[in-house]
Design goal:
The chain has 464 residues and is α/β, with parallel strands linked by helices. It is built from ten helices and 19 strands.
């Protein structure tokens, strides 16, 4: 173990930016994959599709937003351009676009309709833009393609209002010349920062990283503090090694010990409600169940990750009835589970605090207060005493991310007669941790912080 790590000031200094914090607070938001693939029954188009195939005659972005909101989601990201290069907006830089389709008589703009529906519905809007373009003849030529890509990106960044996210896919294939395009990521980032400085640049970007799979599988220990650049100096004279963002040990003490610098880069879990990312009629009976969706939500949002759930519009341009129903039932389930915080009237005490930020501050889920121990006190026990016996099965914990992510190991116990029984053991907490356990009836639980990289700072604790 790295001696003196708890005193490492790099960790205390590694905190989210305002845009990163806002995104984590959104928790749960939607993807909508629609393009020519929706009509050709493909997942990846090859760029040769006729523009005439794209015609979602009943497209209703307000229906999308209503369904998204019913599930409790807070934003929508639309695939403005997938790998096939077909643009859902009337781009001035290509003919492979809605402007040459029969959609809305050639006057349609899916990006505009989605952005305006989000504003009407009170949720945030973002765009997905694939840097791989299988239709553009410039792809694989270096700067000429980068100029093209940045011009299209500028259209999206300047014509559709505020964006909360610009989502970059990392797919990269060969161009017409047989060469792969070497993406000028730093130039792309600069364009986003110029026109949408409050937007997070996600996945192939500096603000948010991929969880490592598209199956909704999450790490047991999810850290938002990771090695900067994900390149670590190897021991001795060995050459530098590159650490993948999908590494299961990402954020561990052992890796951070070797890192020359740290950065804040939280995880996002992206998964589709169906087997595919685009709508396919044959998958109408393969929509995830409410139970599967609920478990996915609790594991991801309650595992220090945001959840990006894809709902693909069908060939009419609508979310299918089954998908809409599942989203509504998911929202009802989540709201029912978290309807009443059973610790709202509890007494919060701690074995130690800094004399100012006491355990009573854990009662409210607020950015205005927090619980903290003295510097150097890396372990603590927090007791939650309720006025009567209550049946519990979920404990919610949140760290105050303004002070970084600190907790490395904790446990939960409940009072049983005159003694205590352990019902949960965990590692990281981060933005939010849902500790699920078999239902117990008790009037007191206690949270044991068993290891923390520096003194723990918690913002909220609740039981359901």
């Amino acid at each position: 173990m790295y001696e003196g790590y708890e005193r490492d000031k790099r960790l205390v200094a590694c905190v989210p930016s305002e845009r990163q914090l806002r995104l984590q607070q959104m928790e749960f938001y939607a993807f909508a994959h629609i393009t020519v693939n929706t009509f050709t029954d493909q997942e990846w188009g090859d760029g040769t599709e006729a523009e005439a195939v794209f015609n979602p005659k009943k497209l209703d972005a307000d229906q999308w937003v209503a369904a998204i909101k019913s599930a409790g989601m807070t934003g929508l990201i639309v695939t403005a351009k997938h790998h096939d290069g077909f643009c859902l907006w009337p781009s001035a830089y290509t003919e492979h676009s809605v402007k040459n389709s029969p959609f809305r008589g050639g006057k349609g703009d899916v990006v505009k309709e989605a952005a305006e529906a989000c504003r009407r519905g009170g949720i945030r809007f973002g765009v997905y833009l694939s840097p791989w373009d299988r239709n553009c003849p410039l792809y694989g030529q270096g700067k000429p393609y980068d100029d093209y890509f940045c011009a299209q990106m500028t259209e999206l960044l300047t014509n559709y209002g505020d964006l909360f996210c610009v989502w970059f896919d990392g797919a990269c294939g060969e161009g017409p010349n047989g060469k792969k395009q070497v993406y000028d990521w730093q130039r792309y980032y600069a364009v986003v920062r110029q026109y949408q400085p409050e937007a997070c640049i996600s996945i192939c970007g500096p603000d948010v990283r991929w969880c490592g799979n598209e199956a909704g599988v999450t790490r047991q220990s999810e850290w938002s503090v990771v090695p900067e650049g994900l390149r670590l100096a190897a021991d001795g004279d060995d050459p530098a090694t590159v650490l993948s963002e999908t590494d299961p040990e990402l954020g561990s003490r052992e890796l951070l010990e070797r890192a020359p610098a740290l950065m804040w880069k939280p995880a996002e879990t992206d998964v589709s409600i169906r087997p595919g990312w685009f709508w396919h009629k044959k998958e109408n009976r393969q929509v995830k169940t409410v139970k599967e969706l609920t478990d996915l939500y609790l594991r991801t949002v309650g595992g220090n990750s945001t959840l990006l759930l894809n709902i693909p519009p069908d060939a009419d341009g609508l979310f299918s009835p089954t998908d809409v129903q599942r989203l509504a039932l998911l929202g009802d389930t989540i709201r029912a589970v978290f309807a009443e915080n059973l610790a709202k009237d509890a007494v919060f005490t701690a074995s130690a605090d800094d004399g100012v930020h006491t355990a009573e501050n854990l009662r409210e889920d607020s950015c205005d207060s927090y619980f903290k121990t003295n510097d150097g006190d890396n372990t603590v026990t927090v007791s939650v005493k309720m006025p009567e016996m209550r049946k519990l099965h979920i404990l919610t914990l949140k760290e105050d991310l303004r002070f970084s992510q600190r907790i490395e190991r904790f446990a939960v116990e409940y009072r049983c007669g005159k003694g205590w029984k352990r019902i949960y053991e965990g590692t990281t907490v981060g933005y939010k941790k849902y500790c699920r356990f078999r239902p117990v009836t008790t009037d007191e639980i206690r949270i044991l912080i068993l290891d923390s990289r520096v003194c723990p700072v918690l913002s909220h604790a609740a039981v359901y």
